[in-house]
Specification:
Length: 101
């Protein structure tokens, strides 16, 4: 096993690396302008239209998942460029609901 060092909030930690750790997929930061599904579910309604300006925190999509009512809010200020979801549509985790610009 190989020793690795991790820097977490300025504190250095040393640990053993495992084969699983070495074979993991690298983290790819998501595009903040792509608004994606956090979990699988069914869309109840889309609260915005293409071309509409939104502010951070505005409700974009309402959906049902695991018998719970959920809402997706705008992560940033912007304008709705495209909508890839409709009421009644079933979707998987990470489905791109909207694209903001």
């Amino acid at each position: 096993m190989e020793k690795i060092q991790l820097n977490i909030d300025g504190t250095l930690y040393e640990t053993n690396s495992s084969r699983t750790f070495a074979m993991r997929k690298p983290h790819v930061p998501s595009n903040i302008n792509n608004v994606t599904a956090p979990i699988p579910g069914t869309c109840l309604s889309v609260e915005v239209k293409v071309g509409q300006k939104v502010k951070c925190g505005d409700i974009l999509v309402l959906f049902n998942a695991m018998k719970m009512f959920n809402r997706v809010v705008a992560p940033v200020d912007g304008t709705v460029k495209e909508i890839n979801i409709a009421a009644g549509q079933v979707f998987k985790k990470r489905h791109i609901f909207l694209v903001l610009e």
